Amino acid sequence: MAGFKTHMAGGILSGVSISLLGFFGKGLNLTQAIAIFIMGSVAGLLPDLDSDTGKPLTLLFQIVSILIPSILFLKAAQYWERSIEFIICYFTISYLVIYYIVCSIIKKLTVHRGMMHSIPFAFLCGGLGYLLFIHSGKQLALLVGIAVFSGCMVHLLLDELASATLKYGFIPALKKSSGTSLKLKSDSFGTTLIFYILLLLTFVAIFSSYM
Questions:
Q1: Residue range 165-193, pLDDT digits in tens
Q2: Is residue 98 part of a domain?
Q3: 183, 119 Cβ separation under 8 angstroms
Q4: Coil, helix or strand at residue 114
């Protein structure tokens, strides 16, 4: 599979492309364009949430643990008074829960090159990206969704490209990992079913936002 730096570069390139489209083509402001860039760049690493160990995985978990509470902050602030003590408690508790509990559960329940390395996962992430930004406007939400989906797909494509090699230095050949990224299902029927149910619920929520 492709390395961490390659995936990071792929995500950044994808994020830059969509953010420039939004800024110059759709009239988004600089802050919105940067938000799209960040989401697209992080999405380039998301399929590796199912990795087992390593500093890149730790960095990814740390980014996710900061990014998700930041996205949901305004929603949470509707139910509590916006005070310095609330901000401290909210971000500290959110970070600790996501990084030490949620991410640990993900590591235990997932298998590397499982459904997180699949096309449905890319669609699921793109859909969730859209829903997280829907309150900022449908145009921005759509571009975020596209950036996240694109970042995940770039990751999967890079992994597939990395599965090609040269046998004896000149004969084209495929590694055993070939085909394990751009797939529609995993070996586990239950896991596959859960992902498709989540994908269906996500697209129902997206459809409902247009009603």
A1: 545 555 555 566 556 678 888 888 888 99
A2: no
A3: yes
A4: coil
